[in-house]
Design a protein that fits this description.
Helix content is 37%, strand content 22%. By secondary structure, the chain is α/β, with parallel strands linked by helices. The strands form 2 sheets. The chain has a 7-stranded mixed beta sheet, with helices on both faces. A 6-stranded mixed beta sheet has the order 3-2-4-1-5-6. A hairpin with an 8-residue loop joins strand 12 and strand 13. Helix 4 packs across helix 5 (101-108) and helix 6 packs across helix 7. The radius of gyration is 23 Å and the shape is elongated.
Length: 378
């Protein structure tokens, strides 16, 4: 008999930023690293002979919870990947839900009709991950193996072992990050010992528990998306956002240079229309994200001059999605970190940025008022 532990990766950027990351190579979050430490503790006294992971960063990073302390070699297998999302990769869930709600519904119910251009059907995932799991088991008779995969792929496996399509197993739900499923395989047949167990995670670091708590305190998460702002027709939206942010932070409009801010934004927008983006909830503009895409490119820096949400949309878990959008634009350009400025006395913003990986690296040069310069590796 071969025992397999099927483990979902730790919290990754897609989980945090609410972006579609199938085959997109996203990274583990800071909270995900805490989950990996808890997973390592869980397996401290469990013997493991071999370890496999998909060929994506988030599973290989999570696998270190077992391979590092046990001195194992990590084998990678693309058949353990998440479902390929094709043309929807790296878009926000809110973007697809707004522009193609029927497609989002098909994905949500794991429909057999889900077949995105350039992606995979759920049945294709069922076939490949089942094939991979039995192939790995056959290579390790009588041993114990840890296999690191992804949420939808693991659910496809669990459905296939029941002889069902994923659309027919709604009771399985979505497994938690680093949740463990245990299988025993003997004579080519698998038996499920337990499924989706995340008892090693305290509530304060469990992704789903944190999301549930956020929904209880701030309401259900909004499905947000982004589009370039038209600085020819929507410049007033940008101006009013800058004005409101200055007033909120400094308590007055003293030293507020609205025309200067507007001229800077327009210049950056003319260089690249992605530089000034509207944050959208449905068809409504709820915020602004500004990027200085040409600035500091030679130093590998992605500079973020302005991050703004309207007051009624703050403290609702949306702000982190603006960080995700900045990462999504700057990382393909080869940038290694984000830089932004924050007022030293803006305690709410300082706590927010610290929570999501920013650290102070000095005073921001050339600012109209004293500001901290913050950095986040990407």
């Amino acid at each position: 008999m071969t025992r397999l532990y099927i483990i979902r990766h730790a919290e990754a950027e897609g989980n945090l930023y609410r972006r579609i990351h199938g085959w997109y190579n996203s990274h583990i979050t800071d909270n995900g690293m805490r989950q990996i430490a808890a997973l390592e503790h869980r397996f401290q006294e469990i013997h493991v002979d071999a370890a496999y992971a998909s060929d994506l960063i988030r599973t290989q990073t999570t696998a270190q919870a077992i391979v590092r302390p046990k001195g194992l070699e990590l084998h990678t297998d693309p058949d353990l990947r998440e479902i390929g999302m094709g043309v929807y990769e790296e878009r926000t869930f809110g973007d697809v839900a707004y522009h193609e709600p029927d497609k989002m519904r098909l994905f949500g119910v794991r429909s057999p009709d889900w077949n995105p251009p350039g992606g995979e059907t759920f049945q294709q995932v069922c076939d490949r991950i089942t094939r991979a799991v039995f192939r790995i088991a056959a290579a390790h008779p009588g041993q114990t193996v840890a296999i690191f995969s992804h949420g939808a792929a693991i659910r496809c496996l669990q459905s296939a072992l029941r002889g069902k399509h994923p659309c027919d197993t709604p009771e399985l739900g979505n497994c938690e990050n680093t949740a463990v499923t245990c299988l025993d395989i003997e004579d080519g047949r698998a038996s499920i010992v337990f499924e989706n167990d995340a008892s090693h995670l305290p509530a304060e670091i469990a992704t789903q528990a944190r999301q549930k708590l956020a929904a209880q305190t701030a309401g259900p998460a909004l499905m947000t998306w982004f589009r370039p702002m038209d600085m020819e027709t929507e410049s007033r939206v940008y101006y009013e956002a800058r004005k409101d942010a200055w007033q909120d932070i400094h308590g007055s409009l003293v030293n507020f240079d609205g025309p200067g801010f507007l001229a800077e934004a327009r210049e950056q927008w003319e260089q690249d229309h992605r530089a000034v983006e509207c944050v959208m909830a449905g068809g409504e503009i709820i915020g602004v994200l500004q990027l200085a895409i040409q600035r500091d490119a030679g130093e590998g820096v992605g500079y973020v001059p302005f991050v703004y949400l309207r007051p009624e949309y703050r403290r609702r878990g949306i702000g982190v999605e603006l960080i995700g959008q900045a990462v999504g634009i700057y990382r393909p350009l080869g940038r290694k970190c984000l830089h932004l400025r924050c007022a030293p006395g803006n305690d709410l913003a300082q706590r927010f940025y610290k929570r999501y990986g920013f650290t102070r690296i000095g005073a921001a040069p050339g600012s109209r008022v004293p500001l901290d310069l913050l950095e986040k590796p990407i």
